[in-house]
């Protein structure tokens, strides 16, 4: 899985997932040749690698033992983590969304990793309990319809999306979309607290925390929910309810395409040619979780924009792990934390291979980006729940 020898990093994750589905165990060799996977050798697996265009090497049992001995050495920042069971995956997304509207849906499809698409009905019916891994597509959990009102309120797609969401919330017994989305947010919160793993990108990250902070507070203006927002709603936010963010200021104007001060999109002063973020380097033996989530064939990843591009470090809680950052700009791109018995990862930006994705842009062809470091971070999270649970040493 290093930079030089692997032809298709993304599909390699799919091979590993498929191997687990067959009932085999695998090992993730953290920091060994770019975070390689050690799989049992069968002709079936070998042929599948060839079919999918994944580079591999067949090695003897003796060589495998020597590699594992090298990894076990206290002088090496490496670790071998056993992958036991393919996690059952849910993607939270409206059924009407096209696959290319969401980076995670695209990369799961490209890597041939199976998943179920669920939405509000399934969440409110407690069907999250069927899954080990949940991804939130680019949702607005605040009930403000993505803050698209200023630029797109007369666009047919916006009008239809608003109508559809209102119809769904009414069907589910709620008078406002914001109330229904809050109920969904709480179900997702409980899923994580109970031991689930949640991964979210772009606006799903900050709007989720904003919805939890605004529990019981009306922050929506009349064009969103039919009545004015509460007076002094900023002072009524409860940051104890959030997963990752604190002390943020909400954007009051309904015509501004921004939720809060969490996001750095409007505050960034970074040229596209120099827009990169660096991944942190962890001790594989002492901190295997962030090490797994940061496995890559490069420590420097190209930046990319989104409605929520990155996170102002001043709004991130002190107990949150910042795994990827642009230090010169004071922004975090890739963060991780725990909530109850579960874990979550937030990843800023919309599409790692589409720098400034806009409404109506053509889809990204991932076959043109088989070695994308930005997409590889997503797949690290997908395989993470498969790891054999270890007692943390820190």
Give the tally of β-strands: 13
User: What structural class should be given to the helix and strand makeup?
Assistant: alpha/beta
Shape field: globular
Number of domains: 2
Q: What is the CATH homologous superfamily assignment of the largest domain?
A: Class I glutamine amidotransferase (GATase) domain
Q: Tell me the CATH architecture of the largest domain.
A: 3-Layer(aba) Sandwich
| Parts with pLDDT < 50 across at least 5 consecutive residues | none
Number of helices: 12
The helix/strand order is HEEHHEEHEHEHHHEHHEHEEEEEH
* Percent strand: 15-25%
Distance from N terminus to C terminus (CA atoms, Å) equals 28 Å
CATH class of the largest domain: Alpha Beta
User: Mind summarizing the main beta sheet?
Assistant: 10 strands, mixed
Helix content: 25-40%
The name of the CATH topology of the largest domain is Rossmann fold
What is the overall pLDDT average?
A: 95
CA-based gyration radius: 21 Å
